Amino acid sequence: MFKIAIISSSIREERKSHRLALYFQKYLENNNLAETELLDLKQYNFPIFEERFKNLKSPSDEVIDFTTKLKNADGAIIVTPEYNGTYPAALKNAIDLFTSEITRKPVVIATVSDGDFGGTQALISLQFTLWKMGFWTVPTRFHSPRIHEHFDENGVPNDAPATDKKTKRFINELLWSIEAKSRMEG
Ligand SMILES: Cc1cc2nc3c(=O)[nH]c(=O)nc-3n(C[C@H](O)[C@H](O)[C@H](O)COP(=O)(O)O)c2cc1C
Questions:
Q1: Distance from the CA of 171 to the center of ligand 1, in angstroms?
Q2: Which of 58, 72, 106, 112 is the most buried (most CB within 10 A)?
């Protein structure tokens, strides 16, 4: 079974986007679609970036854990809120740790806001950053507006059938890309 890393990007007190990360984890596991690793940046509590992982002389256990889990995952979902038209500094702080370790890793982006637009502006800048780094940015998207109204604290959606339907389309693109890559690599 493929392994998918889910990066939860908000480290804010009272954060809401983590609900979507929890939902994706349950969706993948309950439907036997993939094994998951939830990479929660709030739990990692990284200091401000000083150096890429490969150049760190004595990386912390947290940095080793995070980089190893993302490197070993077959694909990734990044759940990000929109802060001032882009993605949070905590996410940039974490992904700058990587260089070629993530080349061609399939990744999809899910954006979140508490307003009506679902974090659509954050998609553009994050997609560019991931493309620039060499991730395989899969052309699908998931926007989650008014997050607090649609998911509870445990990631349970108010409207499960509609949410699952939307998620199926999103996840299928990621799984297709992971499968295609695995066939190419034999
Ligand atoms: C610093 C900051 C900037 C924000 N900027 C935007 C924004 O540009 N667009 C938007 O739709 N929502 C914006 N919001 C509202 C967020 O979408 C909302 O707070 C959401 O819950 C953030 O995700 P989080 O709770 O997981 O941190 C901003 C929130 C914060 C804290």
A1: 24
A2: 112
DSSP-derived letter for residue 49 is P
- Per cent of the chain over pLDDT 90 is 99
81 lines ligand 1 (CB under 6 A): yes
Read off the pTM: 0.97
Over residues 159-175, the pLDDT tens digits come to: 999 999 999 999 999 99
pLDDT in tens, 115-133: 999 999 999 999 999 999 9
- Strand 106-112's sheet: what is its strand order? 35-40, 3-8, 75-81, 106-112, 136-144
CATH number for 77: 3.40.50.360
Residue showing tokens 């499960």: 160
| CB of 82 closer than 6 angstroms to any ligand 1 atom | yes
Dihedral (CA of 114, 120, 124, 129) sign = positive
The CB of 17 under 6 Å from ligand 1? The reply is yes
Nearest to 8, CA basis, from 164, 151, 175: 151
**Ligand 1 atom nearest to CA at 12:** 27
What is the domain range of residue 49?
Answer: 3-185
Query: pLDDT at position 186, please?
Result: 79
Q: Evaluate: CB of 170 within 6 angstroms of ligand 1.
A: no
